Amino acid sequence: MKKISIELSQNGYDVFLGNGIFNQLTKKIKSLKLNKNLFFVIDSNVYKLYTTQINSTIDAYNGKAIFFVIEVNEKLKSFQTMQKIYKNMLDNDYSRDTLLIAIGGGIIGDICGFVAATFSRGIQYVQVPTTLLSVVDSSVGGKTGINFGNTKNIIGAFNQPNFVLIDVDFIKTLNREEILSGLGEIVKYAFLTTTDFYKYIVKNIENVFDKNPKVLKQIINESVRFKGDVVICDEKEAGNRKMLNLGHTFAHAFEVGTKYKLKHGQAVIVGIASALFLSFKLGLIEESRMLELLALVLLFKDEIKVGRINLDRAISVMQRDKKNRDGKIKFVLLKDIGNIMLDVEASREDVMYALENGLGVFR
């Protein structure tokens, strides 16, 4: 089992990574002397696949432990779902001495993190991510939230978990579409980090789809360490942490524009393509280098198909992005691998160019 430390000035925590380590969950809770009253919120799909493992872990616990299985999707990332969790906790006499344990993908993690931030004015919580996307992205960093109206994650809080347990075995049952969704964030890290990591990702795309355990552990380890380092330097997105939004301003508009038929990771890949075109249009990157970097994105052109999206509405969605200031859209763009520009503004005409060309790759 590997341990990656997220050494924040306050509320630092560890990420534990390995194969077959879910059964060590309650041992970690005890060793870290966390609250003993456990309330599990479990994605219904995960519970169906791992009923025996989950039940045996909970049944073996010597203390109060109740679990709540809940169906989630992007449309259910809402106040209504939070209210169901609050009610179940109150009905079972949970209070401030609770440890909330989220088992599932990013939606479960985001909702539970926000519930933990607000129930009894704040309780402890643990993330057990079960999708590739949540493993490499949402489980680390403390961003929590829900969607409201047509705006993704607009209501939420920064709330760091007490620890994260990543059991790579959960990834074995993911289908190709779910692996693809996780690859969206991994592709993002390829552009944010180093040329070596970019080349490693290009070389190992099919190994990720094949769920090669050695490759998965290497990529997860590198991704979590990189994101952890960024979060340590800028916990609440006041500065360099904004780089983690590469492609996301476009991606959120694509998700809304397809009524969430396009999964987040897929939308991020399309968003990165759009960001590359906008970087070129604004003179940040030469056309020849843009085309070289598009090589990674183009590996997915047969995997991702985007239908028609109303571009005017897409821009309207981007204008509501919570990262904007003074009513202006702020983009994260590229000069090269690891050379990132933050808070870049662009004209409507240039954004239209980026949208048309980025989406055009996947039509």
The number of domains = 2
What name does the CATH topology of the largest domain carry?
Answer: Dehydroquinate synthase-like, alpha domain
Into which percent range does the helicity of residues fall? 40-55%
CATH architecture tag of the largest domain = Up-down Bundle
Q: What is the average per-residue confidence, as pLDDT, rounded to a whole number?
A: 94
What series of H and E elements makes up the topology? EEHEHHEHEHEHEEEHHHHHHHEEH
What is the CATH H-level superfamily of the largest domain? Answer: Dehydroquinate synthase-like - alpha domain
* Major β-sheet strand ordering: 1-2-9-6-5-3-4
Q: Could you give the distance between the termini? A: 42 Å
Report the structural category. alpha/beta
- Unreliable runs, pLDDT <50, ≥5 residues? none
Largest sheet: 7 strands, mixed
- What is the overall silhouette? globular
Could you tell me the radius of gyration in angstroms?
20 Å
Q: What's the β-strand tally?
A: 11
Our estimate of the beta-strand percent is: 15-25%
**Which CATH class of the largest domain applies here?**
Mainly Alpha
Number of helices: 14
